[in-house]
Specification:
Two copies of one chain form a homodimer. Chain A is mostly helical and 120 residues long. Chain A folds into two domains: 12-84, Arc Repressor Mutant, subunit A; 86-120. In chain A, 57% of the residues lie in helices and 12% in strands. Chain A binds chain B through residues 4-7, 9, 11, 13-22, 24-27, 29-31, 34, 37-38, 68, 85-87, 89-99, 102, and chain B through 4-7, 9, 11, 13-22, 24-27, 29-31, 34, 37-38, 68, 85-87, 89-99, 102. Chain A binds a DNA duplex (30 and 30 nucleotides) through residues 26, 28, 42-44, 52-62, 74, 76-79.
Chain lengths: 120, 120
DNA sequence: CTACTATATTGCTAAACGGCAAACTAGTGT
DNA sequence: ACACTAGTTTGCCGTTTAGCAATATAGTAG
C-alpha cells in the first residue's frame, strides 16, 4: 500500500491536466483511440470502425493530435493515424478497473448474496 | 515493454469512461481533489484552499461525490470530504508524467543542445 | 421560537463544444 | 485540363456547464 505523493501543482499545471482529461472525455474520441489501439489506420478505416460523419471524425482526430495522443502519417491520398502517447492505455485501464470495482461494490450493496465476490 | 491489452468496449462502457474523464476535466475539481489529497477536510477548509464561491465548490463536490471520487461524512454543522477512489492518484500521476515528457521533448526539438536529456 | 452558522440547491447567463452540411485542399489518373 | 477520391476546414445550431447570486435546508445556541 504505497503512500501517494502530493505534488505541488500550479494553476497552469492543473489547467494542462484538466485539458488532457477533457480531450479524453468524449466517447467518440475514445472510440477513435480504440480503433487505432494496436495499429495505425487511415481516416477511412477509422470512420468505418466508429461510425460517424467524416467531418466530425476528422475534427476529433485533430483534437487528439493537437493533444499529442495520436500522430499522423500521410501517404498519397490517405492519412494514417496511430497512438502517439501510450499512457492512454494506462489511463483507460485504470478507469476501467475503477469503474468495475465501483459497480461490483454497488451490486454487493443491493444483493449481498454474491458470496465470493469481494474485490480482487 | 508489456503489450497492451485491447479490451472490447461497448458503447455504454465508453460512455462511462468518458464520463469519468469529464468529471476530472475541470481545474477547479482537480484543485478540490488536491485539497483533500492526504486528509479529509470540511467544505469551509476546501473553500479556503481553492478560493472560489461557496456555491460553486459545493456543486463541484456534489459532482465528485456522484462520480464516487470523494466521500462525505457529516459531523454537526460541518461536512467532511475525503478521497473515495484512490485511482485518482494514479490518473493524475500518469497524466503529469506524460505532459512532462511531452514538454521535455518539445524543448529538445527547439533547442537540441540539452544533451543527455532523451526520454527515460 | 429566533438568530446564527455551515452547506446545499435553484435560476440565470455566457462560453465551450459536438454534430451537421457545405465548401475547400491535395493527391491521383486520364 | 478534367474528374475523382481522401481528408480538412468553416459556419451554423442546439446542448451542456461553470460561475454568479439568491434562496433554502439543517444543525447549534440562546
Amino acid at each position: 500500500m504505497a503512500k501517494h505523493v502530493k505534488r505541488e501543482l500550479s494553476e497552469a499545471a492543473l489547467a494542462m491536466i484538466a485539458e488532457r482529461f477533457k480531450v479524453l472525455a468524449e466517447p467518440m474520441r475514445l472510440k477513435i483511440l480504440h480503433a487505432v489501439w494496436d495499429d495505425e489506420r487511415t481516416v477511412g478505416e477509422i470512420i468505418g470502425a466508429v461510425g460517424g460523419l467524416q467531418a466530425n471524425v476528422s475534427k476529433h482526430l485533430g483534437v487528439l493530435q493537437q493533444a499529442g495522443l495520436v500522430a499522423r502519417r500521410k501517404d498519397g491520398l490517405r492519412v494514417f493515424y496511430r497512438i502517439a502517447d501510450p499512457t492512454v492505455f494506462d489511463l483507460c485501464e485504470v478507469v476501467c478497473e475503477s469503474l468495475h470495482d465501483r459497480l461490483s461494490q454497488q451490486i454487493d450493496e443491493i444483493q449481498p448474496r454474491g458470496a465470493a465476490r469481494r474485490r480482487a
